Amino acid sequence: MRGPEVSWNFWRAAAGLVLLGVVGIPLALPFGELVGESQGWLAWAEAGRILPLAGDTLALVGGALALTLPAGISAAILLYRTDLPLRGFLQFVLVLSLFVPLPLVASAWQAALGSGGWLPELLWHGEITPGFLWKPWVQGLGPAMWVHAAAAFPWVVLLVGQGLRWVESDLEEDALTTAGPWRVLNRVTLPRCQAALLAAALWVVLQTANEITVTDVMQVRTLAEEVYTQFVGGGPAALARAVAVSLPAMVLIWLLVLAATRRLERTIPPLDTLLGPSFTFRLGAMRWPALGLALI
Fold it and tell me: What is the residue-wise DSSP string for the chain?
């Protein structure tokens, strides 16, 4: 029995060395720049200006999470664990939407809801106010939260959906002998995929916090834009300043990733259950109304 175990440990060590050389060392180089360039820390001399940007970033991330998690979890349940009509087609469309660039998502929402969009013109019956000038769709945190939530929605559905499919069907079937299906979903299925829920939330945080495409259009200043500004500011300490500004956020993200990884290791179902068939919750008379809700 020690032969396979030694072989497995060897491949794990080899993979770790490859990741260290290909990913770890390049990622560590900017921190070496910060250590060697003490002037990088001078970026925090403007802490009074940077801290409000961090607050806006937290508000943006929190709003995106509040909008996309409830909708994404509900959609994942419908698409992956119920007998919803056309769920295979909807899953295919969902995967395609993962490849839509974020600038295109922002432009699409502006084309629909912006000052010159088709929806305002439809509501105004084509009347244009004298002196009308185009401007981005309702600048501010609210629209930025909405666009980021729309972009993150398919990722949440996919990640949570995979977690729902990995829940042990025998646990659900045992619970069904003493409780109804929706109670089982709430008390057994969702708690067993907590790691997937946490991973989806963490992905939304990463996707929202480091993007400047949407916030630039919506005129919202965030910490990511400040990092970009420090980097393109020029000078020998430009990279060090950018790393210094982003360091607290990176440490926080590392801690979240570590917590999510440890949670995943403790709660992921046994490997022999991952490929097994999952229990299907029946919608009954609500199948077609649920399809209409999913299409919306």
Answer: -HHHHHHHHHHHHHHHHHHIIIIIHHHHHHHHHHHH-GGGGGGGGGHHHHHHHHHHHHHHHHHHHHHHHHHHHHHHHHHHHB--TTHHHHHHHHHHHTTS-HHHHHHHHHHHHSTTSHHHHHHTTT---TT-----TT-SHHHHHHHHHHHHHHHHHHHHHHHHHTS-HHHHHHHHTTS-HHHHIIIIIHHHTHHHHHHHHHHHHHHHHT--HHHHHTT---HHHHHHHHHHT-STTHHHHHHHHHHHHHHHHHHHHHHHHHHHHHHSPPHHHHTSPPP-B--GGGHHHHHHHHH-
